[in-house]
UniProtKB/TrEMBL annotation:
Membrane spanning residue stretches: 6-24, 36-53, 84-117, 129-149, 155-172, 184-203, 209-227, 247-273
GO MF annotations in UniProt: transferase activity, transferring alkyl or aryl (other than methyl) groups
NCBIfam families, per the entry: prenyl_rel_EboC
Localization: Membrane
Protein name per the record: Transferase
Keyword Transmembrane helix attributed: yes
CDD domains associated with the record: PT_UbiA_1 (cd13964)
InterPro entries: Prenyltransferase_related, UbiA_prenyltransferase, UbiA_sf
Pfam short name (any one): UbiA
Primary residence: membrane
GO CC list: membrane
Organism: Segetibacter aerophilus
Amino acid sequence: MRPANIVTSIADVLAGVAISGYFLHQTNQLQNLVPVVLLCLSTIGLYGGGVVFNDVFDAELDRVERPERPIPSGLITKKEAATLGIVLLAAGIILAFLVSVIAGLLAFCITVSALVYDKLGKHHRLLGPVNMGLCRGLNLLLGISIIPLALQGHWLLAIIPIIYIASITMISRGEVHGGSKATLYTAALLYAIVLTAILNYSFLKGNLLFTLVFVLPFAWMIFKPLLTAIKEPVGRNIGKAVKAGVLALILMNAAWAAAFGALYLAIVIVILLPLSLKLGRLFAVT
């Protein structure tokens, strides 16, 4: 289920909640947290189910390239894994529908997008990274959907995580056998576009200073291992760049929250980073 990655998906939803302005229009009543909790639980099911099916569809390939994974190592059967994946995805969709019909439909779209990537998308050089990015973009919209009307004004923001995740997916293609410098340079350019977009929104919202507090460590976390991989594009270095890119999503989401004036929520999101890093040492991230 990639526990460390699941924490980053929770950060996606919380960033979406911040973008929607939900807490700017709510009192501090405990009941107002219920939709937020439901959406966080929903994304746990959706992300967990998606990566479980990734391993289900890759079981035969993993017997050769990653024999240590749960299915090829014999820790769990393919049928058991598929059952777990179905339960997780179904739970994610149901929990989202408890918030609203729009949230439920977005959860269903995330499920379809994830399964298409797991089965088909990953095998396409160009469409694969976009397909994977779409899952994250929809996940951000899942958080924004806590106020359905907010989707009308902010749906275009989903393009940013699509670009970011597409770049990480491009990099990950060289994780086993090494990659090309051209691909890594392209990823660096896409990273720069993402950073520029976040800073632009924060400037327009008048929250540039607060946003820089999160953007600067985000930039350091993603570019440091990427530059190492560019110098020596071997599988080990590329794997580190991919892992850093995935976990740095938490800082990116905190930056989004800060850009939209939800500083307290940005701090809550950042607190998830140590947890994700700890889980990243215990469980596979890529």
